[in-house]
Amino acid sequence: MDNSIEEASRPRTIGFWGAWSLTVGVMIGSGIFLLPSVMAPYGLMGFSGWVLTAAGSIMLALVMSRLALRTTRSGGPYIYAREAFGDLPGFLVIWGYWASYWIAIPTVAIAFVGYLAVFFPALSQAPIAQAGVALGLIWLLGIVSLRGVREASLVQLGMTLLKLLPILAIIGYGAVAGQVENLPDFNPSGQPFLPVLATTALLTMWAFSGLECATIPAGDVRDPQKTIPRATLIGTITVAIVYIASTAAVMLLVPASELVDSTSPFSDAARGLGPWAPKMVAIGALISTAGCLNGLIFIAGQLPMAVAIDKLAPKAFAKRNSGGAPQLSLLVSLILASALLLANFSGELIDTFEFLLMMSTVTILLPLLVSALAELRHSWATARSWAIIAILATLYSAFAIYGSGLEVMFWGMVLMLVGLPVYVLGRQRKVGKVSPSALLE
User: Keyword annotations for this protein (predicted)?
Assistant: First the structure.
C-alpha cells in the first residue's frame, strides 16, 4: 500500500489534551527553574521582555494554527514549507529541525542528571554514572515511544500535569505570602529601555521553543484541523501565563539581593512552605525535564517519517510498528542522541558536542520563520488581517534568529546544507537520475 494512503487510513489516537500536553510539555523544560535568577538583574523592567516574547510567540501560534487548518498530514513546519516553496526548502527545513531534536535530547538528559544529584550527591562527582543514568533515561523514554503513539501521548499528558503542580504551588504561595518589599528595583541595571528590552527578550524567547510541536504528529491527531489549532494556541497561552506568573511569584518570595545569586530560585522560594518544599521543587524539576525529553523523543521519530511518506527519504523510515510508532525513525534518532551523549562525557569530544549544540539553536527557529512566510504567501491576496499577523510573526522569528548571534546563524546554516547530499539521493530514488535544475522543482 502507498505510504500516504496508509497514513490517511490510520486510526488517530491523540486528542486535544494529548496535543496540548505535547506543546506545553516540550516548552516547559528545565529552563523555567532558573529563569527568575537570570531575569533578576533587570528588575521589573525585565517583564517587558516576557511581554514581547509572549506576544511574538502567540503570533507564531496563530500562524501555526492557521496553517494546520490546511492539512491533516504529519510533519508540521516541513509540510507547510514544502507546500508553499517546494521539495528542497521543505527538506532543508526538516533536516535541520530533526538534527536540532536529536541534539537537544542528550542536553535535556544531562539536565535531568543534574537535578537527580540533589538526591544522590555522589552522582555529581561520577561522570561515568552520570552518562549511564542519562543514557538509561533516553532509552527508557525511547521504549515508551516505541511501544506506540497512544502510550507516548498518555505519558506526556501525565508528566505535563505533574510538572505543573509544584510550579502552580509556588505561584499560589507567592500570591498569598509574597512581599512587595522583596521585588527588585524597576531598572537596577541602569540601562536604557530598548537595550534592556532586547536583552531580556533574547533571554526569554528560548523558553517558548516547541510551540509548534502539536502540529507535527497531525496524522495521529483526532480531528487535526480543529484540535491542533486549539492545542497550539491554548498551549502557548498556558505557557506564557505560567512563565510570567511563576517569575513574579519567585520575585515576591525571594529578596532581590538573594535572587540575583541564586542557583535554585524555586527551591529558595519554597523554603517557607517547610523543609520538604525544596525537595518537592527538585522532584518537579525532574518530572519537568523528563516530560520535555519524552516530547523531544516522540517528535524526533515523527520527522524522518514525514519525509519518507513523500518519498524524499528511504521508505523504511515511514513504516510503523503495531503500536503506530515509526520504529526506524525513532531508533535512528535515539542512536544519534546516544552517540552525542557519550561524546559529551568523553573529555576529547566535549568541544565537538558544544559546537553541535550551538548549531542546533537556529535550526529550531528557522522552521518557524519559514512557516510564517508560508502563511504570508497563502494569505497576502485573500486575507490581509492574517497576512499582517504573518508579517509580525516573520519579524519576530527573524529577530529571534538574529539574536542567536552571527556564529550560531552561520553554523546552523552549515548544518542544514549538509543535508543537500541526502536530498539529492532521495530525489534520485524518487524520480530516477535528476538534473541539477530539477532539484529546485
Answer: Cell membrane, Membrane, Transmembrane, Transmembrane helix
Residues 6+ apart with CB under 8 A from 224: 12, 68, 71, 72, 218
56-89 per-position pLDDT tens digit: 999 999 999 999 988 888 888 989 999 889 888 8
Taking only the tens place, the pLDDT of each residue in 131-178 is 899 999 999 999 999 999 989 999 999 999 999 988 998 999 999 998
Taking CA 338 as the corner, what is the angle to CA 333 and CA 343, rounded to the nearest 5 degrees? Answer: 130
Cβ–Cβ under 8 Å, residues 108 and 428: no
Q: Which of 124-128, 243-247, 267-271, 424-428 has the lowest mean pLDDT?
A: 424-428
Rounded Cα distance between 396 and 204, Å, is 13
In the numeric block, the cell 516530560 is attached to 291
pTM: 0.84
Give 168's contacts (C-beta < 8 A, 6+ positions apart).
242
The CATH class of 3-440 is mainly alpha
Q: Select from 209, 297, 275, 243 the least CA-distant residue to 33.
A: 243
Residue in 372, 441, 338, 320 with CA at minimum distance from that of residue 211: 372
